[in-house]
């Protein structure tokens, strides 16, 4: 876990800097500098682009992770990477042509409920292409065991420039129309920088020649499109479908609540950048002992960290909503449901990496397709009845069932589960903290209340985790922090 923990810590720090900048953007700048309909429009555009991204990438970002370590010679690696570099064009170009020929039909369908979407629909395609090739170049970097710069570009780069653009909007240098185009421009610059970095780690040598396992790779990448799409659809389809049932500004209100809850999933995304290639390598080498160890330790580490962030959000949510415009204050139920969903994702550790990089990925596809259908059906039932709360309920049900299915399947196929006695201890600590702190508020300004409650939680939670040695990895990090603190003193 040394390499995993080192890069995970760096990635987590980067992610949380991104979260801080993103929180400033989403909770304060967007909500105060931009009208609700334009904010909802931006949420809709990029959520839809994220749904399309796995299809545009042709699954190559997952395929690079799974197969790269199998090829040991420079020639076979070059042939493999050449295929991965050009394969997305087999989807991107035909879809672009179809979109061009049927543009009027598509935009009429997308803008049935909200006509504001009509003039910006084509930006969804451009953004999806940029997202897809970013992931390809990021995977290219990850298999070189270098995930930190890519994580910076993924989590922080575009948020910093969005902050700058929103300030320009406030100062009158940009119109809302120009802001949307400028944000898309930032994503295009981001993918170019990521490409240059990836190629600096491993310079591409274009070799259009067949390599060992060619058809296995092609079959996998064709099927994994569905797996990648499933994850994106489950996470993003709620915002997409809200655009068909409710006014576009309500998508903005829902997006703010989702953003707050999504912070809980940051450690999992950070760790996944390095556990994914490591898991693939362990599976390729058939090293089940190390794989089991990685499974348990990643689960416990993510559950402890994710549980702490869950507590920070849930225990401070009422004070945080006091700081936002009143119309955004209806998302408490959404934050709790999606927060629990994110915590469940953390609890599974590198479960996704095991399934997607093993020969059992077809089962994930089968389960995923069923759950995507369920997602769409539940959203169609619940959104008209309950609006944003209905979308959150549908997402929670589907993610819960999806995670239970993956957990049971890994247990059956690999004869291992990620839980230990310390998992139960962590769960009890989280529940006890909710009971102890949720109804306890200080009579001060909301920001001061948040700071005081956070400080108390940090001290209590960290002390118990460290004192009773819940996790070797977490204790090692705390030891480093304490040693550094005492050295400075």
TrEMBL record:
Transmembrane segments: 12-32, 38-59, 80-100, 120-140, 156-173, 179-199, 220-245, 251-268, 300-322, 328-348, 360-386, 392-414, 421-440, 446-466
GO molecular function, one term: isomerase activity
Keywords associated with the record: Cell membrane, Isomerase, Membrane, Transmembrane, Transmembrane helix
Cellular component GO terms held in the UniProt record: plasma membrane
Membrane topology: Multi-pass membrane protein
Primary location: membrane
Matches recorded under InterPro entries: Poly_Biosynth_Transport, Polysacc_synth
Record's subcellular location: Cell membrane
The protein's name in its UniProt record: Sugar isomerase
Origin species: Pseudalgibacter alginicilyticus
């Amino acid at each position: 876990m040394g390499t995993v923990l080192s890069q995970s810590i760096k990635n987590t720090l980067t992610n949380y800097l991104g979260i801080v900048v993103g929180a400033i953007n989403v909770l304060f700048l967007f909500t105060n500098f931009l009208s609700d309909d334009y904010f909802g429009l931006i949420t809709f555009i990029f959520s839809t682009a994220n749904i399309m991204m796995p299809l545009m990438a042709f699954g190559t970002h997952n395929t690079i992770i799974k197969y790269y370590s199998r090829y040991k010679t420079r020639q076979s690696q070059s042939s493999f990477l050449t295929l991965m570099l050009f394969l997305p064009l087999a989807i991107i170009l035909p879809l672009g042509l179809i979109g061009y020929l049927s543009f009027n039909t598509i935009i009429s369908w997308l803008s049935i409920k909200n006509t504001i979407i009509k003039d910006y629909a084509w930006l969804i395609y451009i953004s999806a292409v940029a997202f897809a090739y970013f992931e390809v170049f990021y995977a290219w970097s990850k298999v070189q065991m270098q995930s930190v710069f890519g994580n910076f570009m993924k989590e922080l780069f575009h948020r910093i420039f969005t902050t700058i653009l929103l300030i320009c909007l406030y100062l009158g240098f940009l119109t809302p129309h120009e802001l949307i185009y400028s944000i898309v421009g930032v994503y295009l610059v981001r993918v170019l920088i990521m490409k240059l970095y990836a190629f600096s780690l491993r310079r591409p040598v274009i070799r259009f020649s067949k390599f060992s396992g060619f058809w296995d790779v092609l079959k996998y990448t064709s099927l994994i499109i569905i797996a990648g799409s499933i994850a994106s659809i489950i996470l993003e389809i709620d915002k997409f479908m809200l655009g068909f049932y409710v006014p576009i500004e309500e998508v903005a209100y829902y997006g703010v609540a989702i953003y707050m809850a999504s912070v809980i999933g940051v450690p999992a995304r950070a760790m996944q950048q390095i556990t994914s290639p490591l898991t693939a390598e362990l599976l390729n080498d058939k090293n089940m002992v190390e794989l089991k160890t990685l499974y348990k330790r990643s689960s416990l580490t993510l559950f402890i960290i994710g549980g702490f962030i869950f507590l920070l959000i849930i225990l401070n949510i009422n004070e945080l909503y006091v700081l936002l415009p009143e119309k955004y204050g209806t998302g408490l139920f959404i934050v709790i449901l999606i927060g629990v969903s994110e915590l469940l994702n953390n609890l599974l550790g590198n479960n996704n990496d095991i399934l997607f990089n093993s020969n059992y990925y077809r089962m994930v596809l089968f389960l995923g397709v069923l759950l995507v259908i369920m997602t769409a059906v539940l959203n169609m039932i619940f959104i008209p009845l309950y609006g944003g709360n209905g979308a959150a309920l549908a997402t929670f049900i589907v993610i819960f069932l999806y995670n239970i299915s993956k957990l049971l399947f890994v247990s059956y196929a690999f004869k291992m589960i990620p839980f230990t006695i310390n998992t139960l201890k962590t769960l009890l600590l989280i529940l006890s903290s909710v009971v102890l702190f949720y109804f306890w508020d200080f009579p001060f300004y909301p920001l001061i209340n948040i700071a005081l409650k956070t400080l108390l939680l940090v001290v209590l939670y960290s002390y118990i985790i460290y004192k009773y040695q819940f996790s070797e990895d977490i204790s090692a990090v705390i030891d480093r922090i304490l040693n550094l603190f005492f050295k400075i003193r």
